[in-house]
Amino acid sequence: MILPWLILIPFIGGLLCWQGERFGPTLPRWIALLTMSLETILGLWVWSTGTFTYAPAPGADPTWALEFKLQWIQRFGISVHLALDGLSLLMILLTGLLGILSVLCSWKEIQRNVGFFHLNLMWILGGVVGVFLAIDLFMFFFFWEMMLVPMYFLIALWGHSSADGKKTRIYAATKFFIFTQASGLIMLVAILGLVLVHFNQTGVITFGYADLLKTKLSHGTEYILMLGFFIAFAVKLPIVPLHSWLPDAHAQAPTAGSVDLAGILLKTAAYGLLRFALPLFPNASAEFAPIAMVLGLIGIFYGAFLAFAQTDIKRLIAFSSVSHMGFVLIGIYSGSQQALQGVVVQMLAHGLSAAALFILSGQLYERLHTRDMREMGGLWSKIAYLPAISLFFAAASLGLPGTGNFVGEFLILIGSFVSAPWITAIATSGLVFGSVYSLIMIHRAYFGPAKSDAVYKGMDGRELIMVLGLAVLLILLGVYPQPILDTSSATMHGVQQWLGTAFTQLASAR
Amino acid sequence: MDLTIQHFIALAPLLITSITIVVVMLGIAWRRNHSQSFLLTVAGLNLALLSIYPALKVAPLVVTPLLQIDSFACLYMGIILVSTLACVTLAHAYLGEGKAGYPGNREELYLLILMAAAGGLVLVAAQHLASLFIGLELLSVPVYGLVAYAFFNKRSLEGGIKYMVLSAAGSAFLLFGMALLYAESGSLGFSEIGKAIAATGMPSPIASLGLGMMLVGLGFKLSLVPFHLWTPDVYEGAPAPVAAFLATASKVAVFGVLVRLFQISPAATSGVLTDVMSVIAVASILVGNLLALTQNNLKRLLGYSSIAHFGYLMIAMVASKGMAVEAINVYLVTYVLTSLGAFGVVTLMSSPYSGRDADAMFEYRGLFWRRPYLTAVLTVMMLSLAGIPLTTGFIGKFYIIATGVEAHLWWLTGSLVVGSAIGVFYYLRVMVTLYLQDSKIQRHDAPFNWAQRAGGVMLLGITLLAFFLGVYPQPLLTLVGHAGL
After folding, report:
1. Bridge partners of A259?
2. Over the stretch B299-332, which tens digit does the pLDDT of each residue have?
3. If you compute the radius of gyration of chain B from its CA atoms, what whole number of angstroms results?
4. Residue B442: is its pLDDT beyond 60?
5. B309-333 burial, b for 16+ CB within 10 Å, e for fewer?
6. Residues with Cβ within 8 Å of residue B253, at least 6 apart in sequence
7. What is the rounded CA–CA span in Å between residue A433 and residue B374?
8. Per the database record, which ranges form the NADH:quinone oxidoreductase/Mrp antiporter transmembrane domain (chain A) (predicted)?
9. Are B87 and B102 a contacting pair, CB within 8 Å?
10. Measured between alpha carbons, how far is B208 from B233 in angstroms, rounded to an integer?
11. Nearest chain A Cα to B435, which residue?
């Protein structure tokens, strides 16, 4: 029974926040904080008690650490089917943690309609948890689309318009919504295609993961259905050329929105690839792998170059996400256990470091009221702590040893080298560009001549706790990633077997 | 043939509605009283709605060669009666009480709506071209009067005349098509026509032409592209509750008979007609959605969006096998719920009548800060029209996509995906307008106590239903599952 509660807690908490506004603007914040803490504690409790050697693997019915099933729509064999394994647990822990942070970081930023804001925030997180837990394909799609609406409100109502007024927050929110919605519908078409193929073979109509895994697909059908899933995940990850919503949405969103977008929402796509696209269509995925890896490669460089060219600090961080997700994509399609484990670490590390950078730029915005780096400069000595902490996270983002990002990138590269040496070698050189844009961000914002004489308020306790906490976690992840690797290893082993078998078959067919 | 008690039970919904018309008319003749006419109408419609249950017990039953009462007809009768009830309730709020509100005679509106509903009931049970035509005209003619009901408003009058002229043109096409079909098959019954066409293998050119012309005639009523030109003007001109009736009961009835016609004589849809219907579907989806993008008037926007929605429905019509009828039924129910909700908000915003309807987008700016629950209603409706999960519209769209995939209609399914993506843009635009900062322009809003009146209570009920069926659609699917053809 714990799984439905993981989803319900944020939804109920959101409603309480909304109604709590009647009693002043502070109550919703505390309710939201408690909600997310409860969610995280519940996640940690599951982590400490569960056994994560159970995970779906080819050749047998999927096994899970925890499972919950309830009839929902009998007509189509749809059930409320939730299940948890190591990968979903880690993602839920990340969601809970970043949920706490996004409540904390909007403590002072959001002053209008606090209750409604937290309602939307909680519902996004609830939807994301749903995506991570659902293993009925209908339900997965249901949550996948559902989390768009509160995110849309978050950007459209509490976002910032760009400085030149050209790109309004509503423009960004609408673009985000349309991109994800349209690609989601393509995925729905693919899901229905898969279900109908399964129906024609067995006469049973079902959206269940375990049943659909057994569907036998012809080569062409498998490839097309795989593409349907891939497009939806490619938009959300994002993969160049489907990324153009991301910088707008990130730059225009309020800090909490950016934290959720970069930290969690992008991860739902990688999760979807690992959970659904690869196991359901292993042969097509293996065939598609070179293309996907090249797309990842393009993403790495394209993201890095565009990040370098940005003047808006949040757009810079947004493009750096595109670059980091390129590594994730390469790792996913490499088909090696090491690289897949690296993907998990990279996802967590990127979630933490990108969230921290967005929180820091939010704090900068609260003081300077601009995100334009041309108007910054010389801030190093003017704000207590903030510049130094920014430097730490910039270094983490460029993959400095000792941080989780290093572990992730290292594992991805070393794992992929076996199967795709050329792509890996080129990707490695992308790290250099990573350092260039990270350092240029620090340089432009904090060094050089000062633009004004104003002295800004230093960081207060709340702000310090948030980012220092993230820094500690990031270092822990970099120094001792073993608990994480142990938790996710069974899941990744399953994925690796699916893809590995397909690779072998593909090689023998050629 | 002899009419037994069984036949009268089967016809009860239609008979009760007709009796109500007479009673309301006599009531008006005896004493003009707004509330009295309203109560009589509501009582009659409710009785008719209840009488569907015994009618279902005796179904399927052929009542004269003209009408067939089966579970399909009963479902559609239910939809028509419920949406008529909703429109009547909205109209009561719209016309207002006492001195405030509509200045002319208020009572005849109920009379006209009841007549149109009776026409709809005939139409959905029709299995003969004669009853099709009778039903269609009985449905359309009162609607001319309804659209022009606020005749001292120029737009309303213009809308009424426009609808009348185009509707008459549509009827002419329909009659011509029927004549051609009769010439070819020698019969007016749906099934006989179907047999005659099936006997020849492919429909002959004359039969195809006849069916095509009928499609034109019915396409006018359904405002499918390229017969859609009247829609935005009429929707804008018609008083809001009448627009709701046009969008729901009227269209559902016409679509119902179209489904029956093409399902009873499946040979009719073979050959060139399938291609014509596919083109109409794609054109309706794209044109409807694209033209809606630039609208600044909520009623016009809903008009264009209804064009697109009937384009989606045409996909299932083209598929015509497998889940198609089920998908159409589910989609129509969700569409009716959603349209009633959206027009309901417009109606309540314009209530009581004061010269013009509150349908300009700027009047809705910042509504959330003034009428939060009314905004919640409109938000749910917009999301439902856009087909986002948690609302009933998603279930409908899910069904249509499933039908398209099942029948391998890739182009049509693709245009649905494109159409939805475009659609999201304008639905979101309406939605976000509601939450923006309040503009300080003078306007009139829904009355403060809107939620305690019949119209408001009904609207909240519809919203809850739209939400509930979005989360747990099984009851709807079970209901619809019994109503196949």
Report:
1. none
2. 999 999 999 999 999 999 998 888 899 999 999 9
3. 21
4. no
5. bbbbbbbbbbbbeebbbbbbbbbbb
6. B76, B80, B119, B120, B121, B123, B124, B135, B139
7. 52
8. 134-429
9. no
10. 32
11. A157
Residue ranges covered by each domain of chain B: 5-482
> How many Å apart are CA A79 and CA B411, to the nearest integer?
30
Q: What is the pLDDT of residue A455?
A: 79
Confidence of residue B384 (pLDDT cuts 50, 70, 90): very high
Asked if residue A306 belongs to a domain, the reply is: yes
Amino acid at site B192: E
Q: In sequence order, which residues have a C-beta less than 8 Å from that of residue B295 and are 6 or more positions away?
A: B232, B301, B304, B426
Interface check B370 vs A, CB under 8 A? no
Q: For chain A, how many structural domains are there in total? A: 1
What residues of B are in contact with residue A192 (Cβ under 8 Å)? 401-402, 405-406
Stretch A273-281: mean pLDDT: 94
The DSSP result for A436-504, as a single string, is HHHHHHHHHHHSSS-S---------HHHHHHHHHHHHHHHHHHH--HHHHHHHHHHHHHHHHHHHHHHH
What is the rounded distance in angstroms from the CA atom of residue B142 to the CA atom of residue B125? 19
Q: With 70 as the cut, is the pLDDT of residue A163 above it?
A: no
The pLDDT tens digits for B8-57 are 999 999 999 999 999 999 999 999 899 999 999 999 999 999 999 999 98
Which residues of chain B have a CB within 8 Å of the CB of A143? 389
Put simply, whether B435 touches A (Cβ < 8 Å) is yes
Residue B370 has pLDDT above 80, yes or no: yes
**With contacts defined as CB-CB under 8 Å, which chain A residues touch B386?**
181
Chain B: closest CA distance from residue A197 (Å): 9
Q: What is the largest CA-CA distance in chain A?
A: 75
Contact B282, B418 (CB under 8 A): no
Q: Which of A281, A67, A83 is nearest to A191 (CA)?
A: A281
Instruction: Tell me the two tokens of residue B209.
Output: 């032409």
Cα gap B248→B268, rounded to integer Å: 27
> In Å, what is the CA distance from B232 to each residue of B116, B227, B236, B295, B378?
21, 12, 6, 10, 20
Dihedral angle over CA of A226, A232, A234, A236, nearest 10: -150
Whether residue A339 is predicted with pLDDT greater than 60 in this model: the reply is yes
How far apart (Å, rounded) are the C-alpha atoms in residues A112 and A499? 49
A181–B contact, CB cutoff 8 A: yes
Q: Does A74 touch chain B (CB under 8 A)?
A: yes
* Any domain includes A44: no
* Residue at A342 is within a domain: yes
What is the structure's pLDDT at B268? Answer: 58
Residue A150: partners with Cβ closer than 8 Å, 6 or more residues away = A119, A120, A121, A123, A124, A127
Kindly state the percentage of chain A with pLDDT values over 70: 99
Domain interval for residue A422 = 281-510
Q: Is A345 domain-assigned?
A: yes
In chain B, which residue's Cα lies nearest the Cα of A77?
B474
- Give pLDDT tens digits for A366-424: 888 888 888 888 888 888 888 999 999 999 998 899 999 999 999 999 999 988 899 99
User: Nearest-CA residue of chain A relative to B471?
Assistant: A72
Closest residue of chain B to A72, computed from CA coordinates: B472
Lowest-confidence segment of A113-122, A338-347, B284-293, B359-368 by average pLDDT: B359-368
